[in-house]
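User: Need the bound-state model for aspartic acid:
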Amino acid sequence: MPMPAKAVLLVHGGAGVINPDSMSGALEARYKNKLGDALVAGHKVLKAGGASLDAVVAAVKVLEDSPLFNAGKGAVLTRDKRIELDAAIMDGASLQAGAVGAITNVKNPITAARAVMEHTEHVMLIGKGAEVFLRNIAKKIGLTLVEPDYFVTARRLEQLEDALAREVERFDSTRSHKGLKLRKRRRAVGFDENKFGTVGAVALDEAGNLAAATSTGGITAKRYGRIGDSPLIGSGTYADNNTCAVSCTGHGEYFIRHVASYDVCARMKYLNEPVSKAVKQVISSLGKAGGDGGMIALDRHGNAVMSFNTSGMFRGAITEDGEVSVAIYCD
Ligand code: ASP
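Assistant: Bound-state model below.
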């Protein structure tokens, strides 16, 4: 996909093992259309003079509402069949940020993250405490509450069963070799083709302010209580007007250990690297460490980067004039 010279909004819908031969043309078109819808929704906000924060929320909501992606409806399940959603948002102008971890009761988790940013003195709320806060404030700020069942789809239930079965298979076949057994088991609960689909957006508004947002169900068959990189400020999500806005997707544990999104900003800040170089360096060192995934980043001049070390990443960009480009596989 040729990267537009200047963009105002980028979105991603997850990175992973995504090959043209594993996807029908019709499914590919559905993914691309939905990415396009998200870009148009965010662009509408920016075109009307709205804030980048509102634009990323508008774009992410479209992707959360689609069962195609691993966020909101259609999110992946924990190994005990629970839904646990993570999301974060950050305002590059003020460095204000909000995040939620392991929630189940708000239709659009990105709006829950924003509620934490705007209506508490905290950055992150998780689990029960987050849900009580969200339930109490829902009416006042217009959050849509749902039951956990709303998020569950047959496709994700099947994927979970498949992932757990493969895990047992791999574990059994390596029982005689302890080291190998552990390695394979670790790989079995790692990142593969069933586990991509996190969504994210970064935007630049007329006032020159950047914002980033990320929303996810995490990783298929994750442990109950596991939090990934997406809601961790500096790991999966970061925005600073002085550097750039970043949203990540991939094997969260690596993005956490590498403090990936802040590392991009730090490289720009301390090494004076352009956003393209900073992102490529971070993605490459994640890849060398075994961390599969990708990220989208936008600086305050509209320079856009979408980089990944997997075979594909659902992604798209829109220019100020509304020119949309979307892609799935490697260029
Ligand atoms: N980064 C997410 C997580 O580890 C998963 C993903 O991007 O697909 O929770």
